[in-house]
Specification:
By secondary structure, this protein is of the alpha+beta class. Strands 1-4-2-3 form a 4-stranded antiparallel beta sheet, with helices on both faces. It is globular and about 50 Å long. This is DUF1269 domain-containing family protein. It comes from Microbacterium gallinarum. InterPro entries: DUF6325.
Length: 139
């Protein structure tokens, strides 16, 4: 069976008010790391001024990591990726741009590869949208 060094990865932009995420956001990420669900590969903070100017700060440039897990592939998110994700950051707010390895999907990806299969499309639906839909359509 094929063994991959890394499983599938995903990029997330997690928006929040202010210039840094609250401890609850960092704790949620830390919990996922601790349970072996994800591995944080890269983390960048993007802040958009009230005038619309984007400032990007690599986690490695901060003096206080606030308990954020160690990064396996710091710098993996390129500026083009960051700018594309940060388009959704409104003026006066910020986002944590996370690149995470989906550890739960690593063995599945290897099994698909060995069987000659591959994921050819994927669509994500945010949890608030799913729950609002289900609440509106409950019998």
């Amino acid at each position: 069976m094929t063994t991959f060094d890394y499983g599938p990865i995903e990029f997330y932009a997690i928006g929040f008010d202010g210039d840094k995420p609250g401890p609850g956001i960092l704790q949620a990420v830390d919990d996922l790391v601790a349970t072996g669900t994800i591995n944080v590969l890269d983390l960048v903070f993007a802040t958009r001024s009230p005038e619309g100017e984007l400032t990007v700060m690599e986690l490695s440039d901060t003096t206080d990591d606030g308990g954020v897990p160690a990064l396996d592939l710091a710098g993996l998110a390129g500026m083009e990726d960051i700018e594309a994700l940060a388009e959704q950051v409104p003026p006066g707010t910020s986002a944590a741009i996370l690149v995470v390895e989906l550890l739960w999907a690593k063995a599945f990806a290897a099994a698909l590869y060995d069987a000659g299969g591959a994921v050819i499309a994927r669509e994500g639906i945010p949890a608030p949208v799913v729950n609002a839909f289900l609440a509106e359509n409950a019998d």
